[in-house]
Structure formats: structure tokens, C-alpha cells
Design a protein that fits this description.
Layout (H helix, E strand, L loop, with lengths): L2 E4 L1 H10 L6 H5 L2 H7 L3 E6 H11 L3 H11 L4 E6 L12 H13 L4 E4 L6 H13 L4 E7 L8 H11 L7 E5 L7 H15 L3 E5 L7 H11 L3 E4 L13 H10 L8 H18 L13 H4 L3 H13 L6 H14 L9 H15 L8 H7 L12 H8 L2 H7 L9 H5 L5 H9 L2 H10 L10 H11 L5 E6 L2 E6 L3
Parallel strand pairs: 1-2, 1-8, 2-3, 3-4, 4-5, 5-6, 6-7, 7-8
Antiparallel strand pairs: 9-10
Helix pairs in contact: 1-14, 3-12, 8-9, 9-10, 10-11, 15-16
Length: 483
């Protein structure tokens, strides 16, 4: 029996629609049907997506979590975190991170995927412990796949073994943001990961960026993985995950079973296809094998974002040159794994180098802080000449002593009566963007405190009730207890 984690609203939206395609009403209107599908969990949001809600849609991201959680009480909503940061690029201290974890949990998040950018076992353990202590129901620790002189299969076996006795880890997953896994690689990596997981569940997450993920998923099942990450309809394929539809057909052909309601799944996919048509958003298409990805290794969402950024600057013709430059910059920066936020630093530096026509002539503050070690140890030594060039820049001395974002003085700055949720947004986002959200946020389609929602919650608590049908005029609500 294979379980499925749905990635449509977070990774699918990010990989194919630059994280901006879906609004709260888009998701909320289909949430009850997604509940019926029977996904183990929804890879639902991240702090980056929360910022997109504010910046692009003027929506309260906390409201989205609350409303969808109320509409899908039986399905775990997942928050992915990539280390000690929340929304802003710069690292945060532990008190602020604990507050952010506490807030996403009390608004309806029950599952965390932890993908620390350097696969540092101590950092992963720390984040897992914090998540559990702040009330997370299911903690899934990720090892992020990459290829470099440092990132060998032995490297991953060692990192997995170091996590084997992590008491706060409920599940382990292999995260392949670049779609780089091959059938041979997943077969070789499975034994040490299974050994580290022990009795715990092992999950597999890959992208279709170079067309290998569907094959990798089947080999992953044969090798012992028990959960696959997929997306629905138009938000699968391309640089996203394999579609749920094709994945369950493949696993059925191989003799595996699943829990998904395929009729409900078809309705969900049609909902997102209709949204794509209405908004002019591109549906994911199967991709051909492209060996260039083994050089630049940018994850799908970053490829889309980099192309869009260059086109907005009127420099779209430089895209291929920027991808080539990414390979060189990554090596000079010590072969970091290209996940948020480091993938953004590498890609933006590569774009600067190409656009400027002179390498490392302009460097962002975030990249300076990377060379200062503010984002943790590098996988391999950085290029000493590049490091000298970066750290001799005027802003380096100013940034050297910058402290992580903290709660110190926050209440005095923003007022003692502000909610924790609003405080986190104002600490990590530009003031004008949060003000625009507050003044322009549309009313939610249905309050989670409405009589109907209260009734359904009460029925759910009464374990002797297995079925309810409510009719009022032409409206019909049918409720069934999940088996």
C-alpha cells in the first residue's frame, strides 16, 4: 500500500507558476474535494509562499492556513522549512523560529518537512526538536540530493546514519529538487536510507525536470520507499513532480495499491485545469532528457524564476549563458546544494556576472553573508580568490557583525497588542507590503467560525456518527467519516 503526498498547492505552484498562480479562493474552493481524494498530506505552504500571498495577492497567509485546515480536517497540511529562516533571507534566532513554528501549528499546520540547505545533521536535529516541542504532529526530516565532488553516495549514507537515532524524526525523506536522481542512484541510496529510517516511513520527492522522475519513483518503490510526492493535473510534469494520475497508473501496473479516490482526483485536476485556462497559466508538460541540468542543478522553480527575471529585465536572450555561469559560481562558492535560500544567491550572482560583463563586480548583501559563514559551513572550501574579492567589498565589514533577526524590541517597535502572526510578518517583510495586505485583503468566502463549520466540527467529535446529509433548498452537504 503506497501513500501519496500532494504537492499541487506548494511545490507544483512554485515550480510551474512561480509560486504566484494560486490564491486562497483558488485553493479553498477545491479543498473539500482534495480531502476526499485521500492524500496522506498536502505539501501546502512555506514561509516563501506566505510572503507571496502578502506581496502579490494582498492576502493574509495565516487566513489561508486556517480556512483550508478547517475545510480539510482529516488531511495533514504540511509546512516546509529550510533552516533557521522565516520569510526573510537572513537567518533568525531560535526564539523567532520557535514563534513561527508555534504560529503555523496553531493556525492549522500539522506536519513539517525539514530540508536544511547543507544536510547538517546537528542542524536537522535541532529543527526537528524545535518542531516537536512547538506542537508539530508529524516531523519529516529530509536529505537534499545533489551531485558534486563532495555530494557522493557515501556522503548521503553518512548523513542518513547520523540521523538514525533522532528521537524527534517521525519520517525520513529523500528530496531531489533538481530532478537529478537516476534509477541506479535511487537503488544505491535506498539501503542506507532504509537502515536509518528503521521502522519509520521513507518518502521520495523528485521533479520531472529532465524526465527521469517517473522511472525513479517506480524504482524507489521496488527499493523500499513507501510514500511518493506527486501533483495534480496541470501542476504536475514540467519542472514539477510527476502527476498523481500517471503515478498511480504506474504503481498499479507494478502490482502496488493506493488509497486514492480516483473520481475525486479527476475533479481536483479539472479544477486546476480550469484555473490554468482562466488565468492563462502554462500547464506542465512532459520534459525531454536534458544533460545540462547535471551541470547547473537549479531546481525547477528557480529555473522558471530566473527566466522570468531576465525577461522582465529585457535580457531573456542571456538565459543559457546564466545557466552556464551558475555552474561556475556554484563551484566557486564551495558546491552548496541549490535549495532556498542558497539557490537564489547562486542564480542571482550568475545573472549579475553575465549582465555586468564582469564577474563578481556586483555582489548582494546575502551573498556576502554567505561568504561570511552566516548560512552555515560550506560543503567544500570556497575559491580563496573569489572569497577575498567578496570580503574586501565595502559592505562586508558592515555585514560581518549583523545578528540574526530576533524578537528583541519587536513588541516595543510594533505595539504590545499586535498578534504574534502579524508581528512575524512585520518583522520579516517590508512595511508597505503588509499595510497593503491589511487594507486590501478581501473578505474570506466563509468564516471558519460559521454555523456550518461549527456543526461539522461537532459531528466529527461524536464518534458514533458515521454519516450526515444536510439539505437546505438546493444546497446539499454530505459528510462521511473517513474509514
Amino acid at each position: 500500500m503506497i501513500d501519496i503526498v500532494d504537492t499541487t498547492t506548494r511545490d507544483g505552484n512554485q515550480s510551474l507558476w512561480s509560486a504566484t498562480g494560486l490564491t486562497t479562493p483558488d485553493v479553498l474552493s477545491i479543498a473539500p474535494t482534495m480531502e476526499r481524494v485521500g492524500f496522506h498530506a498536502l505539501d501546502f505552504t512555506s514561509s516563501t509562499h506566505m510572503a507571496v500571498s502578502v506581496r502579490f495577492h494582498k492576502e493574509d497567509p495565516w487566513e489561508r492556513i486556517r480556512l483550508v485546515s478547517a475545510a480539510m480536517p482529516s488531511t495533514l497540511l504540511n509546512f516546509i522549512t529550510t533552516g533557521m529562516r522565516f520569510i526573510a533571507w537572513q537567518p533568525c534566532d531560535e526564539d523567532l523560529m520557535r514563534l513561527s513554528f508555534r504560529c503555523v501549528v496553531r493556525n492549522g499546520i500539522r506536519r513539517f518537512q525539514i530540508a536544511e540547505p547543507s544536510n547538517n545533521p546537528d542542524a536537522l536535529r535541532r529543527l526537528a526538536r524545535m518542531a516537536k516541542e512547538e506542537g508539530v504532529e508529524e516531523v519529516v526530516v529530509g536529505l537534499t540530493y545533489s551531485i558534486s565532488p563532495v555530494h557522493t553516495h557515501d556522503y548521503y549514507a553518512e548523513r542518513a546514519a547520523a540521523m538514525a537515532d533522532c528521537e524527534h524524526m517521525d519520517r525520513l525523506y529523500l528530496k531531489d529538487p533538481g530532478g537529478l536522481l537516476t534509477v541506479d542512484a535511487v537503488r544505491e541510496l535506498a539501503p542506507p536510507l532504509l537502515a536509518a529510517a528503521g521502522e519509520r516511513t521513507l518518502e521520495l520527492h523528485s521533479h520531472c525536470t529532465i524526465g527521469l522522475a517517473p522511472l525513479v519513483y517506480i524504482e524507489g518503490l521496488r527499493s523500499g520507499f513507501q510514500v511518493l510526492h506527486t501533483a495534480c493535473g496541470p501542476l504536475g510534469n514540467g519542472t514539477s513532480q510527476p502527476t498523481a494520475e500517471s503515478t498511480i497508473r504506474n504503481l498499479e501496473a507494478e502490482g502496488y495499491s493506493h488509497r486514492l479516490d480516483t473520481a475525486a482526483l479527476a475533479l481536483v485536476s479539472e479544477h486546476f485545469r480550469e484555473l490554468a485556462r482562466e488565468k492563462g497559466l502554462p500547464p506542465g508538460q512532459p520534459r525531454e532528457y536534458d544533460a545540462a541540468y547535471y551541470h547547473h542543478q537549479l531546481p525547477g522553480g528557480m529555473v522558471t524564476t530566473t527566466r522570468r527575471m531576465l525577461e522582465e529585465l529585457g535580457k531573456g536572450e542571456l538565459f543559457d549563458q546564466v545557466l552556464e555561469e551558475v555552474t561556475r559560481v556554484r563551484a566557486e562558492m564551495g558546491y552548496p546544494i541549490l535549495v532556498t535560500p542558497v539557490s537564489q544567491f547562486v542564480a542571482s550572482q550568475a545573472a549579475r556576472n553575465v549582465i555586468d560583463g564582469k564577474r563578481w563586480a556586483n555582489v548582494s548583501d546575502e551573498t556576502v553573508r554567505y561568504f561570511l559563514g552566516h548560512y552555515g559551513p560550506t560543503a567544500a572550501p570556497v575559491d580563496p580568490e573569489i572569497a577575498d574579492k567578496v570580503l574586501s567589498r565595502p559592505q562586508a565589514e558592515k555585514l560581518r557583525g549583523v545578528e540574526p533577526v530576533s524578537l528583541d524590541g519587536a513588541r516595543e517597535r510594533f505595539g504590545s497588542r499586535i498578534s504574534d502572526e502579524d508581528l512575524l510578518l512585520r518583522l520579516t517583510m517590508p512595511e508597505e507590503q503588509v499595510d497593503a495586505m491589511v487594507s486590501g485583503a478581501p473578505a474570506p468566502p466563509r468564516s471558519p467560525g460559521s454555523p456550518l463549520v461549527r456543526l461539522l466540527r461537532e459531528v466529527e467529535r461524536r464518534k458514533t456518527i458515521g454519516y450526515m446529509r444536510l439539505e437546505k433548498g438546493d444546497d446539499v452537504v454530505v459528510w462521511r467519516r473517513a474509514s
